[in-house]
Design a protein that fits this description.
Helices cover 73% and strands 3% of the residues.
């Protein structure tokens, strides 16, 4: 849709997946199944970490926060994907588009900060096990979680407000399957270097900053683990943070590929594939990784199910 240079945009058209029109029905079913499994899996983790007394520790407090965040994060974009698949033209209002941009980046930032907090928790548990309960007391781990949410919710406000003040011309078709900063900047008719650099700086600050903190914690953990004399002790220590390391690798690898680069010349199809992965697949992998690799979570789930079964009978 062509626009005059001074037209105030009131809506955007999400291009979605034009190459999948012939198989949109089956793809919709697959996306719906993955989304349902991701939400259900993370809801189970939220439930058992909240109501099972054996999991009332800082580690599982963070895990419950993380799983709740994953439910919110995937729900910001996946419903839009499903609408893209069943509608020939997905039209969203200007306000709705910017709202999606804000929550997508806010929740992504919170996830980065929570991963850093979880890495610090594992660092303290392995490096100073005898002082763990003193260092990671309830005040400390609650404050870490609260500040992760506060900082993550505040930082994206600046670029979103600036983007809302730009002039859009030529087209209002967003070349993506949801509203995001870079696809929107492609539609702006005035210079966007300031907005691009600001978005790059904020994304880099959160992603790279939290990534460095996370990696420093894991490097210290690895040094400590390698210093354990017995192989059984090293294996036990490694198992306490291995699942976190897998999640960190998947999450940061995909997010940095998209956002921590001051260019927008890479193939849209590549960006789209990576975006689908972190919006849809990663939230599904997290509960699988944490539950299948964690005996305490599996035991707690069995206890909760057995208790609920007893109450029903």
């Amino acid at each position: 849709m062509a626009l005059s240079n001074n037209t105030r945009v009131s809506e955007f058209i999400i291009s979605g997946f034009p190459n999948l029109q012939n198989i949109s029905g089956p793809v919709f079913v697959v996306v719906l199944i993955i989304y349902t499994l991701a939400v259900t899996g993370n809801m189970i983790i939220v439930f058992i970490t909240r109501f099972e007394s054996s999991l009332c520790t800082p580690m599982y407090f963070f895990l419950g926060n993380f799983s709740f965040l994953e439910i919110c994060f995937t729900s910001v974009t996946v419903p839009t994907i499903m609408v893209d698949l069943i509608r020939e033209k997905n039209i969203v209002s200007f306000t709705s588009c910017l709202t999606q941009v804000y929550f997508f980046h806010a929740l992504g930032g919170i996830e980065c900060l929570l991963l850093a907090a979880m890495a610090y928790d594992r660092y303290v548990a392995i490096r100073s096990p005898l002082r763990y309960n003193t260092i990671m007391n309830s005040v400390v781990y609650v404050q870490l979680a609260v500040w992760s949410w506060v900082i993550g919710l505040i930082l994206p406000l600046i670029p979103v407000i600036l983007i809302s003040q730009l002039n859009y011309c030529g087209s209002n078709v967003v070349d993506h399957f949801f509203c995001d900063i870079l696809p929107l900047l492609r539609l702006v008719c005035n210079r966007t270097q300031l907005n691009e650099m600001l978005s790059f700086f904020i994304c880099s600050f959160i992603l790279v900053g939290s990534f460095i903190l996370t990696m420093v914690s894991y490097a210290a953990i690895m040094i400590t683990v390698l210093g354990i004399p017995s192989s059984a002790g090293r294996k036990k220590a490694f198992s306490t943070f291995a699942s976190h390391l897998i999640v960190v690798g998947v999450f940061y690898g995909t997010m940095m590929f998209i956002y921590v680069r001051p260019t927008r010349n890479l193939s849209f199809n590549v960006d789209q594939f990576v975006a689908v992965f972190y919006c849809l697949v990663t939230p599904l992998l997290n509960p699988i990784i944490y539950s299948l690799r964690n005996k305490e979570v599996k035991q707690a789930l069995k206890k909760v199910l057995w208790r609920k079964w007893g109450e029903l009978n």
